[in-house]
Amino acid sequence: MASETKSSESPPQVSACFSPVLVSSVAYLGSIVFYLLAFYLREFPKVPFPAVGCLLASDGDFGEWTSAGYVLMALWCFHYMRRFVEVLFVHEYKRRMGYVECFGAQIYYWVFGFWVGLSLRPDMGYINTYLPLFIVGSLLFFVGEVGNGVSHLQLRSLRSNKNNHLLCQTKSQHVVPRGLMFELVSCPHYLFEIISWIGFSLATWALSVVVFLAASVLTLCIYSYQKHKAYRTEFDGAEGRELYPPNRKALIPFVF
């Protein structure tokens, strides 16, 4: 939403004083840094299973692939480098962030980055045990990455092309997103991010990644519901406003 105009007599709002570009950039780069620290830090105390290691027992056909941790590290770093680039060149932020939101983001991404990096270390006992799941999970991860990036570019296009005849613009300058997965759900970028982490979970079978997936699903379900509700409230079909597509769901096509 657009920022509210403050009167000269209003007290300064110190609770929302951080640039979202700075906060998100530090969070995403920090996730990479903490992952790498956890992965390469030597003389680290031994952490017991299942906090580290692969949860899936070997079927005897695949054997032991200790190099999988390095491939998974590349996938993690790719995701957050892409997110960092999007923060700088794709996303548009309309509000500043408060202390809780700012420091909460750093803790969330840094702690999970460290735990995931630690849990996928070969010298900590991580051995990927099932090649078919690794391949399927990695492919699903890239499907999610492409879908997430394309959805973000679509949102960027909506903001930069407000006069497109396919869009309905309101006084708030908001438009109804259209095209591709936006025809089915209000937040396809959230859906594809979940797909990325489902793929990463299938490829890793690590407890840290499963917990991270659960936290991501919960968070993005809440965000998508709030965004979907806001769309339906604003585009209610009254006073000449467009009616938000009634069959469009918040996050999962035809379901939620």
TrEMBL record:
KW tRNA-binding (keyword) present: no
**GO MF terms, alphabetically ordered:** oxidoreductase activity; oxidoreductase activity, acting on the CH-CH group of donors
**InterPro entries assigned:** 3-oxo-5_a-steroid_4-DH_C, SRD5A/TECR
Q: How is this protein situated with respect to the membrane?
A: Multi-pass membrane protein
Residues that span the membrane, as ranges: 21-42, 62-78, 99-118, 130-150, 180-199, 205-225
GO annotation terms (biological process): lipid metabolic process
What PROSITE patterns does the database record attribute to this sequence?
S5A_REDUCTASE
List the keywords (alphabetical): Membrane, Transmembrane, Transmembrane helix
UniProt key word Ribonucleoprotein: no
Domain named 3-oxo-5-alpha-steroid 4-dehydrogenase C-terminal: which ranges?
Answer: 105-256
Q: Where in the cell is it found?
A: Membrane
Q: What start-end ranges are recorded for coiled-coil regions in this protein?
A: none
Q: What residue stretch is flagged as signal peptide?
A: none
Q: Please give one Pfam family short name.
A: Steroid_dh
GO CC, alphabetical = membrane
Family of this protein = Belongs to the steroid 5-alpha reductase family.
What name goes with this protein? Answer: Very-long-chain enoyl-CoA reductase-like
Q: Encoded by which gene? A: LOC118423114
